[in-house]
Task: structure prediction
Amino acid sequence: MAASAMSWFVNLVTMADVAILWYMLAVNSFFALLLVLAAPQLFSHWRFGSEDVLARSLTSSAVPRVSILVPAHNEAVTIVDSLRALLTLQYPYFEVILVNDGSTDDTMEQLIAAYDLYEVPPAVMRRLHTERVKGYYRSKTWTKLLVVNKLNGGKADSLNVGLDAARFPFVLACDADTLIEPDALLRLARPFLFDQKIAAVGGTIRVVNSCQVEEGRVVDARVDGRWLAGIQTVEYLRAFLFGRLGWNLLGGNLIISGAFGLFRRDYLTEILGYETGTVTEDFELIVRLQRYLKEQGAVAKVVFIPDPVAWTEVPTSIAVLGRQRERWHRGLIATMVAHRRVIFNPRYGATGLIAMPYFLFAELLAPIVEAVGLVITVLCTLAGVLAPRFAFYFFVAAYLYGTLLSLAAILMEEVSFHRYRRPADTLRLVFFAFVEPFGYRQITVWFRLKAFVRYFQGDHSWGRMKREGFGGAVADAPPAAPVTPVPEVRLPPAA
Result:
């Protein structure tokens, strides 16, 4: 009887491990497909982004007028440099609307001193419900700048205030700790000149840690030698250079980074702005936008292009990284639940049949599957229940396959944009690609598992973040205002 029970257990464990093994192979093979789809687009954009093409675009009267929206909450460490970079963009028609979201540090004081602000009467038609605005400020030295001071309501609430204040038909959502390259907005706006069927465009985010920054510009790109920041540099290359680029051809792009995305303003106002009941407002916005476009029968699309670049700071401590990744995954859960009707629904085309199922199985459930597979494989191999070759197969499917994809992303960066000029930086990227599966991957799985617990506990907080600043000084950023979840999805009625 005992032998029969043991045989049954071994068979069950073997079947589970085989299923998980095939799951990991399928997920990484889909990543490989995205790589194949991304490669020709990457080189096409690289050639198309030549200086002469950009120069002609700069002088075109058809260049979109853009309102840059910058939510800021306790950003005193980086705000002056970030805003300077925005105000000096190589772009003919734009304004910058910085929304101070109830900062408790001296963010507002620094802005007043650096840009000689003075209060002006409100001249804004309020269409979206937001926290109370305390005042509007103009700069005596920069006519393109508008600063809005408001009560704390969170990032999405601040973006909605910016939407109400925007004067131009296009809006760029940009984080206050993000440095946009001088020609990045021009590159980001370029697709709108050639395709009227585009609703939104996202650009590339790169890691600024250890880079040399002067007056809000990255003048020397470096790879941070600290393992946490270095591995994230590889992550960002993989995610942007072929992860998001590959989705263009599949027609289901669901992510435009909240730190760097350009939108037609009328679409955002039609879907009632950003959702304040989520901690990942950028992902939820694109899902809701894609849903709205399909329900309205619109042919507009959401695309990603690789050559516009913005730089952002990534966490350098495990605690801060954990709060970030847990929040990201908790927001993913909330968005998938809110828009569950889209999943496998042919009405929504590639969004319903490809993108949403992918995010369900390959992103939302991934930490559960990987954790179970890792535990089963290690324990059962040690106990002699599974053959050692199974542990090897699991390692290849789960980790080595992913490492090869990371190396492919590094190669794509080297032969296309080559931002990291020093061979030592390239070697660091390769080193971190091999190091990522050992420790870092398991740590992030744990943080994402915690997200399920906190989600079902009803936790909707952002968590406390620390910024080092572009000059290296550490600043503690208190959490933004808590949010209240939306039960399903907020959309205006279909026409």
Q: What stands out?
A: The first strand starts at residue 66 and ends at 72. The two ends are 66 Å apart (CA to CA). The first helix runs from residue 2 to 48.
